[in-house]
Amino acid sequence: MRVAVDVMGGDNAPHVEIEGAVAAAREFGVPITLVGDLERVKAELSRYDVTGLDIEFQHASEVVGMHDSASDAVRKKKDSSIRVAFELAKNGEAAAVVSAGNSGATMAAGMFVLKRMKGIDRPAIAQLFPTMVGKTLVLDVGGNVDCKPIHLVQFAVMGEVYARCVLGAASPRIGVLSNGEEESKGNELTRETSALLRETSLNFVGYVEGRDIFNGMVDVVVCDGFVGNVVLKLSEGLVETVGKMLRAEMKASLLSQIGYLFCRKAFANFKKTVDYAEYGGAPLLGINGVGMICHGGSNTKAIKNAIRFAYEYALKGVNDQMAEKLTESFPGARDREQEAS
Amino acid sequence: MRVAVDVMGGDNAPHVEIEGAVAAAREFGVPITLVGDLERVKAELSRYDVTGLDIEFQHASEVVGMHDSASDAVRKKKDSSIRVAFELAKNGEAAAVVSAGNSGATMAAGMFVLKRMKGIDRPAIAQLFPTMVGKTLVLDVGGNVDCKPIHLVQFAVMGEVYARCVLGAASPRIGVLSNGEEESKGNELTRETSALLRETSLNFVGYVEGRDIFNGMVDVVVCDGFVGNVVLKLSEGLVETVGKMLRAEMKASLLSQIGYLFCRKAFANFKKTVDYAEYGGAPLLGINGVGMICHGGSNTKAIKNAIRFAYEYALKGVNDQMAEKLTESFPGARDREQEAS
């Protein structure tokens, strides 16, 4: 069982991807296939001692850039590293794909090559957020801008299985992101989604608010990809700004500069808690395979952890459990939705 | 020109409201009318030295609770403090209303009693967010869950005037909140809103992402009230969680506890930057009058500053400028939208 790493897509490619892959192979014993321009990959890899590591190569002559359209990965650049990586997964030569490239293109390539899982209309990108008492999984944070209720229900099922199988939550609590906890709140989408979720076997707790993403009230939060993306970028931006503000204040006086030296470790621990690199990447849920989407600016640690999570995901057979949960959770809801639409 | 303060609505009413009102009268010379249960108001007020302050009373026998429906403020509780406060504004006995009560009820009462401004279909609640280089005004963060493009255009006009007249931005930059900066991103609502905004005389810069709310890239961000509410609650929750995480880390070792003592001032300055109490309340824009909505858990400082901003808002005749800008900004857009719908 190998992990195919698209080494050409990220902002600091292929350096960061290859360093992260070497680290994952060494620390976690993950068998790796590096996918990209063979000459560049070999040149970069020569900088590391890879003795005893299971690292293979697969040449890909093209790269999907950050400003290419998602469909370029599918239609035009057939020999792009991301497309080739998913082809390896399709052919059984890899069990998972990790990429720090254009996330829209990664999503499109994954869906095009591996196809959607049965029972899933819209694959979703799921992102982990740190809380005081664990982590909250939010989906979709990615591509699905205009969603129907049934899509959010499918997100909930996928999120439940991921939280249970990969994150270790016993009976994951599911919430629908809304503008208030009362049932009277929400918009058309959230109200219909709630009604459907109540009929499933999921541990659905109702509406949650923006603040609840960070207080550990639920394990899984579902929303459409527009709102999810705002949530993701807002959180990243706010943590970054808070960090900058604190640094500026710390530098403002000699006293606080001295104080900062004393609490440097506390700050480092805090940074580790909120650092996306600890979680690596965001899984693309709902395809027939495993895709892990990393931040374009990922560092080595993020790539390494993303490879580790992708490997675990594949090893644990999460997708099989998802398929099972999909049929068991809401046998009736799907048909009714289709009748209604 | 007086400010009517609903002293019954907040979580710590009437204590906090009255202390805040006394402080605003003393520090900024704002003439105040306290609206609420006369007996309780007088009992509370007797604890302060109000010599020389212009403070009047208006009795109101009812209170709209946090769990009452918004329409209760309008239909059932006609002698509620929030309703009576807006009646004072309607009769010219007050130029502005400040409340820390049920925000939905405040919005409903304001709209019902004072009516919507000509050219505005949906009044909006606007919230200030701190950045490294100033503040960003986001609207709507409140009541308007399912919006049409023309509503967001009206938000943009109101936000522009508020940013210019109250916050002092010379030529406020306006952004539409979206899931990416590229024109190809966004949902149906944001795409149509952008097309309309491009035809106005506003300084419209295009799409902004969640992170841009905190980096000072624009002065005004428009979105529907569902997304805006998620933004507001998420930001409050994240800042709170970050604070808790940092405190926990600081307490974890003696070294960092000592360090904390040295940088206490830096933390206090930081807290001041992100503290909502500095900005007081969120203006309800688009009614024929001035309404300032405060957090239910507002402290004295928040109430004081909200009264100050409400007073300035009224003094500067912001609503007249809004009316002017509305007709000048997009003479054509409104008609087209109406034809289309």
Automatic annotation (TrEMBL), chains A, B:
GO biological process, one term: fatty acid biosynthetic process
Annotated GO MF terms: phosphate:acyl-[acyl carrier protein] acyltransferase activity
GO cellular component: cytoplasm
Group of enzyme by EC: transferase
Catalytic activity: a fatty acyl-[ACP] + phosphate = an acyl phosphate + holo-[ACP]
Gene: plsX
SUPFAM superfamilies: Isocitrate/Isopropylmalate dehydrogenase-like
Subunit architecture: Homodimer. Probably interacts with PlsY.
The protein's name in its UniProt record: Phosphate acyltransferase
Protein's cellular compartments: Cytoplasm
Signal peptide start and end residues: none
Sorted UniProt keywords: Acyltransferase, Cytoplasm, Lipid biosynthesis, Lipid metabolism, Phospholipid biosynthesis, Phospholipid metabolism, Transferase
Physiological role: Catalyzes the reversible formation of acyl-phosphate (acyl-PO(4)) from acyl-[acyl-carrier-protein] (acyl-ACP). This enzyme utilizes acyl-ACP as fatty acyl donor, but not acyl-CoA.
Domain of life: Bacteria
Primary location group: cytoplasm
NCBIfam families referenced in this protein's UniProt entry, alphabetically: plsX
Pathway in which this enzyme or protein is active: Lipid metabolism; phospholipid metabolism
Any matching Pfam family: FA_synthesis
Family according to the record: Belongs to the PlsX family.
E.C. number(s) listed in UniProt: 2.3.1.274
